[in-house]
Amino acid sequence: MKHRNFTTTFQTLSFTLFLMFALSSAKVSAQCQASFTWVQTSNNVIAFTDASTGISPGTFYTWNFGDGGYSYAASPVYTYINPGTYNVCLAISDSNGNCTSSFCDSVTVTGTINCNLFVNQTLQNPSCPSCTDGAAALQVTGGNGV
Predict the structure, then answer these.
(1) Terminal CA-to-CA distance of the chain, rounded, Å?
(2) For residues 44 and 109, is the Cβ–Cβ distance under 8 A?
(3) Total Cβ atoms within 10 A of residue 53
């Protein structure tokens, strides 16, 4: 009987040590999920709010607004030049490299086309009231190609 108790005790102890070793050597992997909400606050202006879960204070944010614009803020406000539908993506990662995630959503922007157009005129008066040697020139710059 003593031999059997010793074997049972040894097996229990071995299993306990194995479990302790397995748990202590297992890498704890953080689970995060990128997400955001958005609301249009005025013409062409969208306020994005980070709604990611499982994030830590050292989380890095990378926003791609779908029109070439980007931000590294947690919850940015962005002004689009043109109304339209944009594919906006948020990528997050923590400072330890344990967690990375990305999320994309379609954002519909309403408003006006922001087009700054400048006209520069140059006039050269004729040399006399009946002369035809005068000239006028217009130079147009700006706009956004629309």
Answers:
(1) 93
(2) yes
(3) 10
From the CA atom positions of the chain, what is the Rg in Å? Answer: 33
CB 51 within 8 A of CB 35: yes
The pLDDT of residue 23 is above 80? no
101-116 residue pLDDT tens: 999 999 999 999 877 6
For the whole model, what pTM was predicted?
A: 0.61
User: Distance from CA of residue 91 to its chain's centroid?
Assistant: 6
* Residue showing tokens 């947690």: 74
Residues in the chain, how many? 146
Tokens 């006209």 appear where?
Answer: 119
Amino acid at 31: Q
Question: CB–CB of 99/31 below 8 Å?
Answer: yes
Token duo for residue 141:
């710059």
Judge residue 137's burial from the number of C-beta atoms within 10 Å of its C-beta, 0-12 exposed, 13-18 middle, 19 or more buried.
exposed
